[in-house]
Amino acid sequence: MRVRLKTYSFYALKRMVQGLALTYFCFTKKILLKQKNMSKHHSFVDTVDQVISDAVNKGIMHLNTEDVKLGGNKIKIRGNEIINFGSCSYLGLEFDPRMIAASQEAIANYGTQFSSSRAYVSSTHYQELEGLFDKIFGAPSIVAPTTTLGHMGAIPILINDEDAVILDHQVHNSVQTAVTLLKPRGIRVELMRHNRMDILEDRIKVLRQKHKRIWYMADGIYSMYGDASPVTEIYALMNKYPELYYYVDDAHGMSVFGKHGNGYVLSQQPYFHERMILTTSLAKAFATGGSVLVFPNKELARKVRTCAGSLVTSGPMQPATLGAAIASAKIHLSDEICVMQDELHENIKYANLLIKKLGLPLVSESNSPVFFIGVSLPKLGYNIIKRMLDDGYYLNHGIFPGVPIKNTGVRFTITRLHTFSQIEDMLERMAYHFPHALEEESFSMQQIYKAFKMPVPEEQQIEKSVQSLINQINLKVEHHNTISDVNKVEWNNLLGERGSFDWDGLKFLEDSFSKNELQENNWDFDYLIIRDNYNKPVLATFLTTALWKDDMLSPASISEQIEAIRATEDPYYLTSKVVFIGSLLTTGNHLYLDRTSSMWKDAMQILFEKLSELQEKSNAGAVLLRDFDSGDDEMDAFLVDNGYYKINMLDNHSIDVTWNSEQKYIEELSAKSRKHLRQDILRNSSKYEITVEKNPTPADIHDWYNLYLNVKERSLELNTFTLPLKVFKNMARHEQWEIMTLKLKPEFDTRNERKPIAVMFTYHTVENSNFMTIGIDYSFQKEFMCYRQALYQVIMQAKKLNLKKINLGFAASFEKQKLGAQVFTPVAYMQTKDHYNMETIGNMSAITNLKSTVA
Fold first, then answer.
1. Is residue 599 within 8 Å of residue 532, measured between CB atoms?
2. Over 50: is that where the pLDDT of 803 sits?
3. What is the mean predicted confidence (pLDDT) over 795-804?
4. Cα angle value 483/488/491 (rounded, 5°)
5. Nearest alpha carbon to residue 60 among 369, 431, 388, 284
6. What's the confidence (pLDDT) of residue 5?
7. Domains of the chain listed by start with CATH number
8. Does residue 408 sit in helix, strand or coil?
9. CB–CB of 244/221 below 8 Å?
10. Is the Cβ–Cβ distance between 142 and 311 less than 8 Å?
11. Percent of the chain with pLDDT over 90
12. Handedness of CA 231, 234, 240, 244 (dihedral sign)
């Protein structure tokens, strides 16, 4: 759909905008319903629900005031008087008698509402208020009912089909929501790492070749960390590149900064740039409701007011709010606003000084009224917030999805109504509770600094050393970098029959994924055994550090887009190093954990520390704990509290060999499966020569590798890097790797040279068969069903070897269930340094789903 505003009448445009919005929400609903049943995707909503519900259950979110009347910065919660450090009314104007009187007068004169679309008639208050804002900002303005509606109205009108949009990674959700309305029009939308002006300039240089205008969308003051947009640098880029436009939401800067309280952005630059659109909220320091959109010229303001669907058709602001806003605007235009700003900034300076003195880990020091004390893990945030609430101080919990789950914090705000005494008492109590909460949650200040990439004070380094000694007294940590240094018998007793990662299987992996040409084929291995004082293992596992494709578990349609970019622009686009339990060539439960031990959680804490150390050492973007039981509520709560969010893995499959013959196996299948077996497998079995390969030639191995590549190039369901040829050479000479081939008998194979049409690679332990990968000649698939035949022969071969269990791995669930496989969906838990790559892929997913639905 291509939208050209000049060709539409007002009413046609109105219907089109309404239809676009309705279509978007309908599409979104369908997408959510579709994705709900796709177990391989991380359920973002479920994770948010889990994290927030946990905070609600702990009594620190979804609270309600119990006051009959408010008059300052104290509120009543659960019968207790609490000092409110969570208000965004930074100047405390909501209690100003002039604003209350103006609101009451507007109600007396106009009633509780003036119900008419502004397209037809507006109450007189609008004209007066917008005239006052024109003076405050020195530019034409439009008042909107809410900031979100303002964005949703303006952005689709401002952005043309030929434009491109770059979103700062941390720009407010209301902006990102509005930008999704552009996607059905095919407008290019990109995410950019937070405040990286070097990246912005690089993208401008590329995008200007194909796009007339490039819109950079950002916040003036960011709502979580309280840091600011680099306005001076952005102005410099606009002056350098005429294609660049700046759309900025200055909600938390309004009233706090600038002449007449015109915000942070205009406090940094003396003029309103001709290619800037500024939006701001009136529901924070301005102390009313609604929002303002400010434009560089009257024509653009007129066009948005005329054409913006959410401004034309939404209900108007009520007289009470408009009356209060007029009174607030008049205060802003008086000298009094400077006095109020000075009083607020004195409080902010005092808070910053105390935080330094008390040694609290402030994530971003600035002169904004928003403060974020890093705690890293949700459980530590819960602990401190609860302690502060019990002491009579209300603070916010900065948590996922507002920040990465490992970057949880205690967020509080300073207002003009706070006294020095209140600020000092609150921060001293926080400083008192911090070490107690750290001790209770088995965490350290040093770990907090690492999580937020802040320099670690010397005293925290000492604390780490002391804590390390304490851990070593209670538990003994055995850490090796090669399986050769691990006792073979003990390792196999602990983990040897769980998959293809017994001692010999891991030696195979080390030999295969080292000294390779490409970086993705070189993996680092670490082995951990944590013992109690009696030398009994409490935890054992192995960790791999390797390069991953970030879209590994994304829908195939997304991977197709990303692979196109990798093929033409950057082979390592959207890839990250990951430190994880297990490896990319093993399946099964890779973690031995003695849950009967009273020290299992302590052992897990040591594992977390080792993962964090390896992450820092390798500069990995994420750590992953995999293959957990989805129904283990205790482990789930423990991992989420420690800063991990849950993702669903692909379905995994296994068969327990309880039958003693092929006939018995067939009898145990369902009627439908037996029919499937007869029609698609048994009727073709006599056409094959089945061989367990011994002493293959280099030519044989190359043929097998080409068959593997056939499958790899078609399979984006689990999108990984291609295995190197070296892996298959090593398989061919390893005793525990079995390679079976399927060849058609001569009467069915018309080729001049008879070669396998399928090859199966299986790793055998003492008791189990682990089917790891396959190669297929797809030109024979339709007629001879070689994939199904291959699965069946793997199962029959396991029985011939008297093995007890067959692990069939991920994917192809329909095919494997038809052959009697049991399905289970393990879960994994991940920590990421930031959300950037995940959100970039999510952005691509939304575009793809919308386009496919339109088609």
1. yes
2. yes
3. 94
4. 85
5. 388
6. 35
7. 5-11+96-334 (3.40.640.10), 475-621+846-854 (3.40.630), 653-824 (3.40.630.30)
8. strand
9. no
10. yes
11. 67
12. negative
